[in-house]
Amino acid sequence: MQRPDISALRERQSDGDYLLPAYEDWCFSRIPGTVADVLGADVGSRLPEAATDAYDDVSRVVVFLVDGFGLAQWDGERERVPFLRRFERAGRVTPLTSVYPSETAAAMNTFHSASLPSEHGVVGWYVYDPDTDEQFEALPFLRKDGSTPERIDFEDVADAESIYPELVAAGVETHQVTPFPNDSTVPHTYDPEDLSTFSESFTDAAREASDPSYIFAYLPQTDAVAHHAGVDSDEYRETAAETFDRVTEAVETLAETSGDDDGQTLVCITADHGLIDTVPEENVDLSAPPFDIISDLQTLTDGTPVRYSGSARNVHLHLRPDRIDPVYDLLTAELDARVLRKHEVLESDLFGPNPSETFEHRLGDLVVVHRDSSVWYGDEDRGKLDFVAMHGGMHPDEMLIPFATATLDSLVE
């Protein structure tokens, strides 16, 4: 199978104005299995051979995951960020789709477990777990009021096992450079508010790793600034430039610390999802007319409405049984959106095949995916409705991501 170009992948996966995940081949979910395979381990499904067939004798893989830096963002910043043009000349950029939902909590649980959202059950940034009567943010595992959930453990947020013990058992030493430590790997934490701290942590990882090794580096800064300023903003461009300045430094560090063995270092850049700019004034408030659906929602045992499930581009509505049909009719009449009933989601494999019981229990009675706006509840501060750049839905700019690969030697020549 040949690597697709972006037009071919877009055409194949298009469903009207929406883009479906390519779980069967060219999908973000297959990156962890591909990394493992290149290093001689087996942790799950990999990308087709054409994604990495140019790389032999690899003893170290380094993945830079730039949160929210989809193919649209790569293309938009290419002329302003010399490193992206340098990377394209040195290697290749393979288009992939994200998983659905195209958002961090679901995608990162996929990345660290090689399982799909339908399997691990993280349906979005917010999760309602009826088995424990909890609604919470999957990342950073907090309730909306900032308290820690008491009836579910963090280890049970995702119904999946980490890939890292398997990599260690296969002899692959794994290091992570992230704002949050992972006990399954050798952690190197840094302050996400100060990108200069990333460089020191990455240097420590590069110096300490013994090959065969896998270094994973997570950079969330572009996503964070885009939410507030949008991708078409000076703030976003400045953050993207600084992010890739740090990636450039990291590549130089790899060259300085690489050993004399015969193995190659494979450098990868990818993203969990892309971004689209919404118009905050046009985003949809489900707690305001003509919707006013708060009273239609299921409640926790203490009477609290289940408002937080999914995200503003992937809304899961857990409704009173007698209100499912009326709310469905209202939303389909008023919104430029896909409104999917639970059985339609399961039949379509939108979140992936083989749904687990955990996923089925957490899946909303209705799932709302607006074409290009956010749909959420108007908190006192309007919350997600005031965000500019968003993700989580099936817009092509959310769903299409890069899997850019090059050998270290080709990057530093």
Automatic annotation (TrEMBL):
InterPro entries (alphabetical): Alkaline_phosphatase_core_sf, Phosphodiest/P_Trfase
Coiled-coil stretches: none
GO terms, molecular function: hydrolase activity
Protein name in the entry: Nucleotide pyrophosphatase
